[in-house]
Amino acid sequence: MAAKKAADHGNSVKDDKVYEDLRRGGASKEKAARIANAKAAGTLKHQSTELEDRSKADLYAEAKKIGIEGRSSMTKAELVKAIRNH
């Protein structure tokens, strides 16, 4: 039996297979598209240490940009976790 080909998600998604895998894993459409496009462009970085290296103010700004609720009362560790899980 042949492997199923990934559907074409248009010009806005650069790597359809990665996008579909992420969506099946529970990622939002926006997150899956961001990751798929970053991977296709070769700019995807592993965030496990990258986020911890950023300042709390920078993490707060990122949380605000992506719409994380309750960010003003979060610690740096909570901001890292919230960004990762967004």
From TrEMBL:
For biological process, the GO terms are: DNA-templated transcription termination
Q: Where is the Rho termination factor-like N-terminal domain?
A: 50-83
Q: Region Disordered: list its residue ranges.
A: 1-31
UniProt cross-references to InterPro entries, sorted A to Z: DUF7218, Rho-like_N, Rho_N_sf
List, alphabetically, the Pfam families matched.
DUF7218, Rho_N
- What is the protein's name according to its record? Rho termination factor-like N-terminal domain-containing protein
Which organism's genome codes for this protein? Sphingomonas yantingensis
